[in-house]
Design a protein that fits this description.
TIM Barrel, eight-stranded parallel β-barrel
Length: 293
């Protein structure tokens, strides 16, 4: 899946102040992200607030993104959760026309052991009509998928096209990177803040949150690193680094939505149980955004 190398963005779901999905803003944002150089879009991930979206809303969001993208960039769709059979049913029943791959997160809340994680993804591999991008994010799920488990899944099932790794462990991610059984198994950073050192180590790209607001600057960083211009990549990373961290200070996607609201890209509305960031953090984010204009 070399089409998923480079700079991807885990897109937000824009909401109107009333709380409804802002489909007009989503249309504008989809064009904005593509025109500013991002290589692919990830729909219905964590940043999209997918736990609080209805099935109909998810369908409408996917349809809107596909209609604006018109095949110009690959689209990845999130199908993951802690009910293995339900995820199997979704993979078989959801219309995935126009989708390049599925992003599937490790089961959350249940806290399976490594054997359970392997068995869960094995079950998905047996029914998925599309390549699956594994997603490890222990800070949200409460369980870390070890390098050993990831490498075994990659070796045993060719349908796994790579992993979005957001464990925050350079040791774990570097091991996967250096020991992956095939070059076609992509290692993609799920953490903006360590994206540059991972790219310097040979990672294939990043699925970013901060790229929602600064797609051109972020994609320039990734593309420079992948082309070997580490000086330029480092300069972009250095400029983005403060806001990369600040947007997570009071939860995501509240931070990135506040930043985007300041840039007149969408409203800062989030759905409960999330709430907008504090005024003090909002001020910091606005100052950082102004510095990056």
């Amino acid at each position: 899946m070399k089409s998923l190398t480079g700079a991807g963005v885990a897109i937000i779901t824009p909401f109107l102040p009333s709380g409804q999905v802002d489909f007009q803003a989503l249309e504008s944002l989809t064009e904005f992200w593509i025109s500013q150089g991002l290589d692919y879009l990830v729909v219905n991930g964590t940043t999209a607030e997918n736990p609080v979206l209805s099935a109909e809303e998810k369908k409408g969001i996917l349809s809107t993104v596909l209609s604006i993208a018109q095949g110009r960039v690959p689209i990845v769709f999130g199908i993951g959760g802690n009910h293995t059979r339900a995820q199997q049913e979704d993979l078989c029943s959801i219309d995935l026309s126009g989708i390049s791959a599925v992003l599937s997160v490790t089961p959350f809340y249940n806290k399976p052991n490594q054997q359970g994680l392997y068995a869960h993804f094995e079950a998905l591999a047996l029914v998925s009509p599309l390549p699956i991008l594994l997603y490890n994010v222990p800070g949200r799920t409460g369980v870390n998928m070890s390098a050993e488990t990831t490498l075994k899944l990659a070796a045993d099932f060719s349908i796994f096209c790579g992993i979005k790794e957001a464990s925050g462990s350079m040791h774990q991610i570097t091991r996967i990177l250096y020991e992956r059984p095939r070059d076609s198994f992509l290692v993609i950073s799920g953490d903006d803040s360590i994206a540059f050192p991972l790219l310097a180590s040979g990672a294939d790209g990043v699925i970013s949150v901060v790229a929602n607001a600064f797609p051109k600057r972020f994609s320039s960083m990734v593309h420079a690193a992948l082309s070997g211009d580490m000086f330029e990549a480092q300069e972009h990373h250095k400029a983005l680094y403060p806001v990369m961290n600040a947007i997570f200070d009071e939860g995501s996607p509240a931070g990135i939505k506040e930043t985007m609201a300041h840039l007149n890209l969408c409203h800062n509305t989030v759905r409960l149980p999330l709430t907008p960031v504090s005024e003090s953090l909002a001020l910091q984010l606005r100052t950082m955004a102004n510095a990056l204009k």
